[in-house]
Amino acid sequence: MPSSSSRLARRTAALVAGLLLSAGALAQTYPAKPVTLMVPYPAGGVSDVIARTVNNTLGKQLGQPVIVENLGGASGSIAAQKVLSQPSDGHMIFQGSPNELILAPLAISAIKFKSEDFRLVNMIATAQIGFLTRGDLPVNSIDEFVEYARKQAQQGRPITYASVGPGSFYHLLGEHLSKVTGIPMVHVPYKGGAPAEQDLISGQVDIFLSPFATKHVDLRKAGRIKVLALLNSARLDTAKDIPAITESKALKDFTFNIWTGYFVKRDTPEAVVATLHKAIAGTLTEPTVRANLEAASQTPAPTLSVAEAAKAYTDGTAQFRAIAKSINLQAQ
């Protein structure tokens, strides 16, 4: 009669074999149904524009529709948590950035997930950051803004800056701006870029360090906002009349951008990840997709291998955690 240990070993081996077979079967049939692309902000913002630029072509690459779902709130963590609550089968993917997956867990004590609960399949694009102000702010350059903000603070009327939520990249930029200039400023958080932008246009908030898009050029021409600079080291070819931040005296080293990528749960089968990775890479070769991303002032990402994407996410996690530490970001 076989010993209990040998029976246990056989059962364990059978279980492992079954799991491997089921994972293999899943990979061969993926995607077996429409894929949900979770966008962690309301419709109308830059994140939504990226998703709706990519989703149809990505769906053709995958052979199943890719449906955009918008779910804002808590610096994107509500949408991220919803993805984590779904099966690890690649049928719900997360369009995210360091904003939601690295910084939000550092800033919001109610968030229980970690950056490491997700894996980056591939990057999609890098965004330029615009230094946007309300249209009637009485400044026309970065250096004029710094002087104005200093005087306002001295008079007990500190300027207000918008973000897409506590601990978001744009919150950190505002805090960092306050720190490097030594000027007190007031943080005004929103659930997404669209409502923040609406309040900027209506003059309810003074500035918004935001992903820069073509629509901002039109809003600027109409006098509804001002774009004092882009946080780049050089002017954009597509926006030559907007200064780079390096052209200022007060903030010449204040250069930043942020990338967007597509994520899945950490334990998603490798074969599913490989299929999705290939589909994203194919999507980014489509001229129309690239042109539309560029029209939204997004630079299409280079194709990374699966291993390179993993390293980029690890490196980005370390970089943004260091920025959060430098401004003493505390979880609320």
TrEMBL record:
Keywords: Receptor, Signal. It holds the Pfam family TctC. It comes from the Bacteria. Residues 1-27 form the signal peptide. Belongs to the UPF0065 (bug) family. This is Tripartite-type tricarboxylate transporter, receptor component TctC. The lineage of its organism: Bacteria, Pseudomonadati, Pseudomonadota, Betaproteobacteria, Burkholderiales.
